[in-house]
Amino acid sequence: MPDQSPLLSLSKLSLRFKGQPVCAVEDVSLSVAAGEILCVVGESGCGKSVTAMALMGLLPPGAAEIHGGVMTFDGQAFDLTKDRVPSDLRGGRIAMIFQEPMTSLNPVFRVGEQIAESVQRHSGCSRGDARLRSLEMLRCVGLPSPERLLDQYPHQFSGGQRQRVMIAMALANDPRLLIADEPTTALDVTIQAQILNLIRDLQRDTGMGTIMITHDLGVVADVADTVAVMYGGHIVESGPMTEIFENPQHPYTIGLMASVPRLSGPRQRLTTINGTVPSIRQMPSGCRFRTRCAFAAETCSTRPAQAEVGPDHSVACHFAPLEQMLKVAG
Amino acid sequence: MTAILEARDVKKHFRIGGGLFGKAALVRAVDGVSLSITSGETFAIVGESGCGKSTLARVLMRLLDPTEGEVVFDGTAVTHASGRTLADLRRNMQFIFQDPFSSLNPRMTVGKLIGEPLEIHAPQLSAKDRHAKVADLLAQVGLRREHAGRYPHEFSGGQRQRIGIARALASGPRLIIGDEPVSALDVSVQAQVINLLSDLGRDLGLTLILIAHDLAVIRHMSDRVAVMYLGKIVEQGTTDALFEAPRHPYTRALLDAIPDPDDRNRAGRPQIDGEMPSPAAPPPGCAFHTRCAHATDRCRKVVPVPDETSDGHMTACHHWRDIVDAPRQPFPLNRSAATKARLDLYRKATEGAKITQIAQPKPDREEMR
Ligand SMILES: Nc1ncnc2c1ncn2[C@@H]1O[C@H](COP(=O)(O)OP(=O)(O)O)[C@@H](O)[C@H]1O
Ligand SMILES: Nc1ncnc2c1ncn2[C@@H]1O[C@H](COP(=O)(O)OP(=O)(O)O)[C@@H](O)[C@H]1O
Ligand code: SF4
Ligand SMILES: [Mg+2]
Ligand SMILES: [Mg+2]
User: In this protein, which residues make up the domain named ABC transporter (chain A) (predicted)?
Assistant: First the structure.
């Protein structure tokens, strides 16, 4: 593995929401290099969005106590417990897109004005240049007749087109890092495929780093270079994409793979993960997955550390690597 | 093979606008659908949002009146039913909604919610018998007797969907229509509910009509599938035939668009451009022609007639016979030996096999702080 220094790295982010007994996100570390797509995958409530918001300095003020976490971006380190992530990074060198584009688009302004405004704010260029840049971006995200679209309002677009507008706006300032929080979850599959292909192409052209948040292992297989699997606010497994699919180690990763209905192979009864994600008030001590884990034993009430099981591949489970530790009796 | 439910050229058009704002338009939500559902089968209807699935389901259930065509349940015309006949239909056909939360009255206990359809459809039951029946229903969907005293908000999404299913089962229906019953659930929970529905369908001899936008989910739980596009069925066949040898260009496009964890090269699959047009202004000819790579002049002018082969597989496309032979990248099942072994170990563990520890966890793995 070439020792490429990451574009962004996050080290041991822990944060607790006011009034909650335990951290919603605990000891989360991840990193992404330029030109690379990191997928953060996990079921709803596992802390994906909160982690992204913390990175962007977008958590509602006063809602959470950050107990620890250092973010290094482009060689610059920020101690998230005290430093404020500079607001000029947001929408400039770090851009973000969300599941629902209407959360970031203002319904009363024309789309062209909104993109131009963001360009002007970050580059200080003239209005004319900003408008030209908006036009170029709308064309670049594959919207038909961009000249006409510049003067339209967000509600005049379909869901898929709005997501394209969001991407145009996010990329208008040539960000080094794109954080995409479930950008295709609300879209139909054929539109999702278009948007994923678009993000992949733009990413390849610009060489930016991307953190893509998703709950869908299919999306991971489609776009990821590296993967971080989250459960209950912890990263339980992380590594290169092929490693995760060809050598999954954490029982949660394996359970997730087993429960996804497939397009190929036998049409058999689906394997499931027992129970549901516990609420933050009922989060077990030790391994947070142990209340649902098929392999849980007494040891699991102490918290497993991240262990390296391969190059860049680490797992937080007492029983990794699985087949060296466990077998079916008899 | 007896048909339990039939739809004959059903149309549902909505008139919109025409007031102060904008001009009036006719939304052809369902535009000529014929179906014949066999007793005891699980029949799936798939398609992208806005293609008319929910509207069709509501017409089948007589929650909406069709603009044209008729629906027949077990020999009885649903379309004109009233009074006693309609009450019988309501008992025999039940509905499960996508969003279990908004479909359950938050102020009613689970016991009340499940008991309510019993009061309506089995008024002869004593209160004691009704409670016993509620407890049975809870057990049937994997919930506990004690849950009867709780309120919907105390349950997770998957559990609420179980409550919705128990409620649907209460009247002892012969047919259940589920409108995206697992779409809002997380994968691990989705799999639990899929298994539950399959078990109930089999054990109670139910006919299930499942509506979904996710083809992979459908593949695991249905016997036959109908694919809808812009208010019409474009392909219908057995689940195996449809997934192994899809005929309609739209079905093929849908399948190619699905990201599958085993398919690490979806980017290499063909992509269809554009979006589904509005049902208020459907394109002439084949409604799919605006996105179809095979479209010809004929497709732009002439509506394709459903073409059914002797195996009962129906396709509404002018050119399917030429297209079907075109090579198609099959879905890979590319799992490493390690992944297979672990999925197998996991499956056995969840099925109750005894797992023994053959080595001690390394002490440095414990407690990081
Ligand atoms: N503002 C908030 N106040 C309290 N708890 C919150 C807040 N935002 C998120 N949480 C909790 O943090 C956890 C992680 O949420 P989130 O990151 O949104 O999950 P997801 O993985 O679905 O994106 C959840 O338990 C959620 O309820
Ligand atoms: N009551 C209504 N009035 C007007 N248009 C409607 C109404 N119900 C549904 N539609 C329209 O009919 C089309 C099909 O809707 P629907 O049956 O909900 O699709 P699906 O369930 O496949 O997403 C959509 O364009 C929708 O906007
Ligand atoms: S009829 Fe023509 S446009 Fe329609 S699906 Fe077939 S080939 Fe494509
Ligand atoms: Mg989220
Ligand atoms: Mg619907």
Answer: 8-257
Residue among B42, B12, B218, B158 at smallest CA distance from A189 = B218
The pTM of the full predicted model, rounded to 2 decimals, is: 0.93
DSSP code of B276?
P
Tokens read off for A260: 């996804």
Q: Using a 6 Å cutoff on CB, does residue B29 contact ligand 2? A: yes
Report the separation in Å between the CA atom of A132 and the middle of ligand 3, taken as the mean of its atom positions.
39
Enter the ipTM.
0.91
Same domain, A83 and A120: no
B259 vs A: CB within 8 A: yes
**Separation between Cα atoms, residue B255 and residue B328, nearest integer Å:** 11
Range of the domain at A113: 95-172
Reported confidence tier of residue A101, pLDDT bands at 50, 70, 90: confident
SS3 B356: strand
Distance A182 CA to ligand 4 centre (A): 7
Q: What pLDDT is recorded for position B103?
A: 79
In the block, residue with structure tokens 């699985």:
A322
- The finding on whether B304 has its CB within 6 A of some atom of ligand 2 is no
Which of A116, A141, A172 is where one domain is finished? A172
Alpha carbon distance B330, B327 (integer Å): 9
Q: What string of DSSP letters covers B158-225? A: HHHHHHHHHHHHTT--SEEEEESTTTTS-HHHHHHHHHHHHHHHHHHT-EEEEEES-HHHHHHH-SEE
CATH number of the domain within which A201 lies:
3.40.50.300
- pLDDT (tens, 9 = 90+) of chain B, 369 residues, equals 689 999 999 999 999 887 666 678 999 999 999 999 999 999 999 999 999 999 999 999 999 999 999 999 999 999 889 899 999 999 999 999 887 677 788 899 999 999 999 998 888 999 999 999 999 999 999 999 999 999 999 898 899 999 999 999 999 999 999 999 998 899 888 989 999 999 999 999 999 999 998 899 899 989 999 999 999 999 999 999 999 999 999 999 999 999 999 888 777 888 899 999 999 999 999 999 999 999 999 999 999 999 999 999 999 999 999 988 777 777 777 789 999 999 999 999 998 889 888 888 876 544 444
Q: Do A137 and A272 belong together in one domain?
A: no
CB A41 within 8 A of CB A47: no
CA distance B179 to A287: 37
Do A178 and A168 lie in one domain? The reply is: no
Query: For residue B256, which residues of chain A lie inside 8 Å, CB to CB?
Result: 193
Q: Confirm or reject contact between B154 and chain A (CB < 8 A).
A: no
Distance from Cα B31 to the centre of ligand 5, integer Å: 16
Q: Which residues, in sequence order, are CB contacts of A52 under 8 Å at separation 6+?
A: A40, A58, A96, A179, A181, A211, A213
Closest residue (by CA) to atom 8 of ligand 2? Answer: B55
